[in-house]
């Protein structure tokens, strides 16, 4: 089994004790984490992604201005191939406030950033030295539904995900109750609106995060405000989506506040998981292998408060979830047959964790 590094994005503002981006060695036998290093000097490095060659890490600084310039930041770091430690390369303005999601396209040529308060998507080229160049495209959203007057008073881009075939980009706009659909021009780094330029979700549901099934035929959207997951059939020819079914992420008898956060499909394609903040749980769903439809299996407490993002190790054995308000990451063992989760006792103290990203490596040198 290959070794893995785990990079953890955090919040550093306010009362947080976080110092930046945390680097861990993942133990594939126990699911535990061993701290290797901390990358300091960046404010609120909440979300991150690495290049296909695993040589660079790209991190958003979820703030409203960088050195007096309006907009958050996108930082590039080189990854030490022996230790996993990070070395700062450069920082660019995202041209929108509070960037909250970052993803590279499959070729590793471009980085896409969703700016939540800016209500826009920014595309950056990756230079030969791993640095990010100035933005090659900025797409400003303008619609908003106002169904939830506190959260949908303006466009709020919450994520931008590239399809498995690298042809289409799906940008969840929580403020507009829409998923915007774009073609991706890899020659110039531009987003081209699709013939069917958006998919509407139920009014007030507030789309947030997105993941594709390993077969490339189905996709799953988690809605933050509506506490739902929608299964879609994906058409690679025109980027269009057809709804398969929708499930609730919360028990029927739960009537307190809760919003969803993250969603991931298990590597074996049999299960989908999502986080509930408030209920403080992971919803566990089974995927119908013939249709892609979801059925809720149950709910597992995350063992902490306000779970944000989570990661599943490449073998599909363990799930690690970031509990922001209890400053810890809890590890769960995944039953490969039933999809059910069980805590295995591994709890790692991390200040204000937000994003958990596994990165497979060939071999890790931890020194003498």
In short:
This protein has a single domain, classed as YVTN repeat-like/Quinoprotein amine dehydrogenase (Methylamine Dehydrogenase, Chain H).
What features would you describe in this structure?
The chain has 368 residues and is mainly β. It has a single domain, classed as YVTN repeat-like/Quinoprotein amine dehydrogenase (Methylamine Dehydrogenase, Chain H, 7 Propeller). Helices cover 0% and strands 53% of the residues. The chain is built from no helices and 30 strands. It has strands at 3-10, 21-26, 33-39, 48-50, 56-61, 65-66, 69-70, 73-79, 86-93, 99-104, 110-115, 120-125, 137-140, 157-162, 168-173, 178-185, 190-200, 207-212, 218-223, 228-234, 241-248, 259-265, 271-277, 281-287, 294-301, 307-312, 318-323, 328-334, 341-349, 353-361. A four-stranded antiparallel β-sheet has the order 3-2-1-30, with no helix packed on it. A four-stranded antiparallel β-sheet has the order 4-5-8-9, with no helix packed on it. A hairpin with a 4-residue loop joins strand 16 and strand 17. It is globular.
């Amino acid at each position: 089994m290959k070794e893995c590094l785990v990079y953890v994005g955090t919040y550093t503002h306010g009362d947080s004790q976080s110092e930046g981006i945390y680097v861990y060695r993942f133990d594939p036998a126990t699911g535990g984490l061993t701290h290797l290093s901390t990358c300091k000097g960046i404010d609120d490095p909440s979300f991150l992604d690495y290049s296909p060659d695993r040589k660079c890490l790209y991190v958003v600084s979820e703030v409203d201005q960088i050195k007096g310039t309006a907009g958050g930041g996108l930082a590039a770091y080189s990854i030490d191939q022996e230790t996993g430690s990070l070395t700062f390369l450069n920082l660019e303005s995202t041209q929108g406030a509070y960037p909250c999601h970052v993803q590279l396209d499959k070729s590793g040529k471009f980085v896409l950033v969703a700016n939540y308060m800016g209500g826009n998507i920014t595309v950056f080229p990756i230079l030969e030295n791993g640095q990010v160049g100035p933005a090659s495209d900025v797409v400003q959203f303008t619609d908003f539904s106002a169904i939830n007057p506190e959260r949908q008073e303006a466009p709020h881009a919450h994520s931008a995900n590239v399809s498995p075939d690298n042809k289409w980009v799906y940008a969840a706009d929580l403020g507009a109750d829409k998923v915007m659909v774009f073609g991706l021009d890899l020659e110039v780094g531009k987003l081209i609106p699709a013939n069917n330029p958006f998919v509407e979700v139920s009014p007030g549901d507030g789309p947030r995060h997105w993941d594709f099934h390993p077969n490339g035929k189905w996709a799953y959207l988690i809605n933050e405000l509506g506490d739902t997951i929608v299964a879609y059939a994906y058409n690679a020819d025109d980027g269009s989506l057809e709804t398969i079914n929708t499930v609730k992420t919360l028990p029927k008898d739960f009537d307190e506040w809760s919003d969803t956060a993250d969603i991931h499909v298990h590597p074996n394609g049999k299960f989908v998981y999502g986080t509930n903040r408030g209920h403080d749980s992971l919803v566990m769903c089974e995927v119908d292998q013939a249709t892609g439809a979801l059925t809720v299996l149950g709910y597992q407490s995350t063992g902490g408060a306000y779970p944000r993002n989570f990661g599943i190790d490449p073998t599909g054995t363990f799930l690690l979830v970031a509990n922001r308000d209890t400053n810890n990451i809890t590890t769960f063992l995944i039953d490969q047959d039933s999809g059910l989760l069980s805590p295995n006792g591994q709890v790692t103290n991390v200040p204000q964790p937000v994003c958990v990203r596994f990165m497979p490596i060939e071999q890790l040198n931890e020194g003498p």
